[in-house]
Structures are given as structure tokens and as C-alpha cells.
Design a protein that fits this description.
Helix content is 34%, strand content 24%. It is an alpha/beta fold. The protein folds into 3 domains: 89 residues, Beta Barrel (OB fold (Dihydrolipoamide Acetyltransferase, E2P)), CATH 2.40.50; 149 residues, P-loop containing nucleotide triphosphate hydrolases (Rossmann fold); 80 residues, Probable gtpase engc, domain 3 (Ribonucleotide Reductase Protein R1, domain 1), CATH 1.10.40.50. Strand 9, helix 4 and strand 10 form a beta-alpha-beta unit. Guanosine-5'-diphosphate (GDP) binds next to helix 6.
Amino acid sequence: MPENSTLLTEYGWNATLSETFDALLVNSPDTEPGRVIRVDRGQCDVAVATGTVRALSGSNALCTGDWVTVTKVTRANTALATTGETETPTVTSIFPRSSSIVRSAASGKSEGQILAANVDTVVITTASDGDVDLGRIERLLALTWESGATPVVALTKSDAAPDISAVLAEVCTVAPGATVLAVSAETSEGMDILDAVLDGTVAILGPSGAGKSTLANALLGDTAASCVLETGRVRAGDSKGRHTTVTRELIPFSGDRTLIDTPGLRGVGMWNAGEGIDKTFPEIEELISACRFSDCAHNSEPGCAVVGALERGDIDERRLRSYRKLQRENAWNAARSDARLQAERTREIKVLSRRIKDHYRGRRQ
Ligand SMILES: Nc1nc2c(ncn2[C@@H]2O[C@H](COP(=O)(O)OP(=O)(O)O)[C@@H](O)[C@H]2O)c(=O)[nH]1
Ligand SMILES: [Mg+2]
Ligand SMILES: [Zn+2]
């Protein structure tokens, strides 16, 4: 454990992480642990024991929330006329992630996109003053359960909801096992309860305009300079108009916790989220295990517990549709990635065999 670890403790440094660092057997005084606060192209801000450093990401695919080692790498200084060397902080390794929030990459890559790492609690936000999209809540629940973090569903702007108890009741039916709360950053309703259930590293997810940044600012309270995060509030006479969050940044707040506000997520595709989907729809999962055939497709097979329950009205048809949709998407993305990986491999083999052929041809000449 580094001597001056106060700052790192604010970012969540603990005995377990200290052991991980020791296990890495870093024998260099120039290497220290830190936590990634934000990531830009090829560079990142890392909190270390003595402050924040700007570091090169090295060859690592980093994301906000990662615990890493940073080493000062000496480079020849070619940019300046004077000869010399500069020491550039560089990320040299990533600690194993305790959780990672992954969605399917928007552009056709054969990998999922990691939104944040080492997250303990995910706040799934939905504005309660308009139409509530239950399918999107289920989608974010699946993503969160799969990540290993604990979901909390926050129905924001409760002060502006026409009938908040109806919204609460409806959302509770789609979030079994998760805490569902009505909150208002405006009147502070429910904010103390939300604050009490948040643990460790907290990520706030939800669509643009859900009130994520406003909620984050309310949670950060006095611990940060007033209004660290830009919100969408349109101030009178403010010609700049609306502000929207564009980066994911880790900010410490009371109780050695950290908070990640996120830009509104447009699409959240399922990525390797089979278990997360099962956990989101436990009532359907339970029925499936009772079907007569283990490969039951739940269409018209005899002894299908799902169809039976649907006919009796024991399960909600919308829930079943939503479950099927996420399952299909998850399977489709898995197949797509398999095909893509296969294509990447075939391409590599072709390049290699051409090189071998050229090599032999060269020898014959
Ligand atoms: N009435 C009300 N409006 C809110 C509340 N929280 C946020 N808003 C408004 O909702 C809009 C979007 O807020 P913002 O935090 O930027 O949403 P984000 O895009 O999810 O980060 C802004 O106009 C906020 O002023 C709330 O608790 N009550
Ligand atoms: Mg925002
Ligand atoms: Zn069945």
C-alpha cells in the first residue's frame, strides 16, 4: 500500500486492491497503482496517491473505473531541438475487473463495448413525468445483473409526475429483486433513501434527459464544487442553450464512494448477457425449468409450462415478449461475433499463407 493513500482511498482503494497490487510483484519504485478517472483517445487521467496524472493508455483497452499500474516510461525527446529524455506516465497493466458493464458495440466489431469497470451499484434512471419505457428498464437491468453490479431503479422527477404511485407500482413489476425508488432532485424527495442504498462505485445510466446529471450533482452535494456536471437545464438568458454530458468521469463523493455520470445511452444491445436476462425475468426462467422438454421453444410443445402460465394469465404477455426479444438479440450478437471472429481468422490465415508462398517463390528464383 502506498504511504500517502488518502487520495486513493477516496477513489475506493482497499486491502483487496492492495493485495492485488502486491501480487503483481512490481519491483520498481517508479510504478504505482491508480484509478482511471476518464479516458480520451490514447490517453487517460489517473488518480494516484499524490494527485492526478495524465498518462498514455499504452496498449491497454481502458475504461473509466479501471484500477491500473502507472509507470514513468523514459522516452527520447525528439520533439525538442535539445537532446534529452522525458518521463511519460504510462499505464502498464490493468487489475482484474470485479465487474464490467458491457453492451454490444454500436459499430460492427466482434467485441462488446465496456462502458465502465469495477462498478458496485448501477442507478437505472427513468423520468416519471412522461411515458415510462418498461422494455428499456428491463434491458438496463439485464446489463446490470450481468455486470455483477447491483441495480437500483430511480424514477426521477417525481415532483412532476401526475401519478407517482402508479408509476412505482408498474415499474416494481418489471424489476424483481431490485430496489425501486421515486426521487426528485428538485424537492429532494427520496434522495436520502437513494443515498443510503448507494454503495462503492456508482454508475448512473439512462436515456438523455432522464435527469442523470442533476441527480449526480444532488448526490455529490457539498463534496464537489457546485454543479460539477453540466445538466440540460435551460437557464433564462443563457444563449448557450442545453448542456449534455459527453464524457464518463469518475468523481469521489461522501463515504469513500465514487460516481460515474454517463452520456445518455441511445442503444443498449445485449452482449453475453444470458445470465443477466435470466435474472431480469426470474418468473419466466422458473417456468422454463418446468417445461416437459428441455429444448422446448415455448410455442406449441406439449407440456410447455410457459404457454400454460400465459393461458392461465399467470405471466404477463409483454414480459414474455420482452424476454424473447432480449434473448434473440443476445443470441444474434453472439452469432455475429462468432462469424466476425471467424472471418478475421480466415483473413489472417490467408495473409500468412500468401507470405509463405511468396517466401518460397522468392527462394526458387
Ligand atoms: N421537475 C424536475 N426536473 C428535473 C429534475 N431533475 C432533472 N430535471 C430536469 O430534466 C432535464 C434534464 O436533466 P439532466 O440532468 O441534464 O438529464 P441527463 O441528460 O439525464 O443528464 C433538465 O431540464 C433538468 O432541469 C427533477 O427532479 N425535477
Ligand atoms: Mg447528463
Ligand atoms: Zn416451454
